[in-house]
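SEQUENCE-TO-STRUCTURE ENTRY
===========================

Backbone structure tokens: a row of integers, each naming the local backbone shape at its residue.

Task: work out the structure tokens from the sequence, keeping to the layout shown below.
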Amino acid sequence: MEAVLHQWKANGGVDFNLEGLRTTLDAQASGIGDYQDASSESRKKLAEATKMDVKLKSVGPLLKSYQEEIDRLTLRSSFAEKAFLALYKPLSELPDPVLGLNRATEELQQVGKVGELEAENRRLQKEVEEFHKEFQEIQNQEVTVRRLEERLREYEGQMEELVADKERIAESQRQLASARAELLAVRQAYDAAQASLFDLKLRHDDEQAARQAQVELLFSEVERANASVLSLERERDKLKEQLSAERHLSVAPPEPDLEIAVAQKDIEVATLQEQVQQLQASLSQGAQAREAATAALQAQVQEQKAEIDALHKQLHSAPSASQMQEMKKQLQMLKSMELDMSESDPIGEKTVLKLLKEKSRRLETESIQLKARGKQVEEELGHTKQQLEAAEEKLKEQSRLISRLEEDIASAHRAGPPPAQSAPAVEESSGGGGGGGGKAMSQPSAGSASDDISTVTEIIRSQRDRFKMRVGELETEARKLRDQLADVQEEISSLRGDNLKLYQKIRYLSSYNPRQGKTAGDPEDPSELKYRNLYEDSVNPFTLFNRKEKQERYKGLNTAEKVTLHTGRFFLANKYSRTFIFFYALALHLLVFLTLYKLANTATLRPAV
């Protein structure tokens, strides 16, 4: 359109100047009128002169008048031809305005469509910005959820600390009671040990006195035995001396009675010596047993004394009753501070069970809020998916429109400018001299038309490039939205897992008071029912058994079967892999069929060859 206007404004570097051309044409039209008036008057004069009697003397002027009239007519015709050529020359070089107007109309329509597309893009941009804002709100809510989870973990840690303190206090109470019981038992054992020790001492003294008497008796017997042994040895020596003296005195053999008496004395001496040795051994054994019993009794006494001392120390180190009451008060104060108890409530009014119930209710409330927030996030996610699909459909429609516009431009470029229809008329009107001029003017007309088409093509291409860039930006934003959607889905799955863990903790806390549960008439929350079903499925023994059986079956497979199983899962899990397997199998079958067909044909044709 701009090129056509440029051609109308200027032609070959010279201004077309339509207003000036109109002024010139007006002047020329007035001149043509003057010439027409003068020609009519001269024709009238010639007619009058011709009607009069022709005289020889007036023939010359009459011919001169006719010659002047012919000159004026020639001047008039040349003036008209020059005016026509002057008007035709700029008009012949201008393109056909119909094509330009048609293109202008099409461009106006396309500009209207482009405006609609830009409005649609702006609307999509606003929607994307709204998505960003909503996602930012979701992130802020996620931060809030994380902060609540951190507070929940802190409360759980505090609850665990309180439970641990309570357990420690209970353990210390149990230890104190056991220590007191042990102390009482030790005191009783100490008294019994003292009594038994006194009895043992009495028995030991009695036994020692009896043993001392026995030892004295044994010593007296040993002394008597020694005395008798000595007397017997002396008698034996005397008898031996007498026997040797008698042997020296007489050669006769000794008397048998004397020898027998000596032998009996020797036997008695040996027997007495053995008895003495036995008595000494029994004395030494009795002394050793007495020393061992005394050492054992002393060790037992020392152990009991050590136990008594340890129990005394433990009793002194254990807190007293007042200290235990003070510790209980401090513990309840800590509980009231950490569990946000009111300051007006007296310390010790709420028990640990009530605190756990309140904590369980608070956790249930937070769980319900988190579940509601999860549902809201899921709904927003579905709405975002729908809007994203609508935006993708609009982008596809815009890309189709752009491709159709490019095809129209390419077809218009291939069609080229229409042939000029005025050149033959010019040739017919201007004769042989004007034919060359008509051909020369038709060539610039074709060049200007091609320049016009190239200019329009460049304009539309630039618009196409801008639309492509915009479409690329929208696709990038759509990709980002998809990534954000995937992140939101992952966070939803993590929130679902956290809610499941929270439900498990709530069940654990509610187990402290089994009687405080929901009655039969209480309505059941669907979200709680859902997470209860998930929790029961996670702890279902049949499900665990099924998983265990699957794992055992999988372990029972050999390497080839495992590779086949993983390969099948890999190829069947993806749409593109399934399509590839289908076409690959189809190509293999076609290849086998073609090979068999070719082999069959070559086998049938081989005998003929």
User: Anything to note?
Assistant: Residues 17-93 form one domain. The first strand starts at residue 10 and ends at 11. The beta strands are 10-11, 14-15. Confidence is low (pLDDT under 50) at residues 250-254, 340-350, 417-446, 516-522.
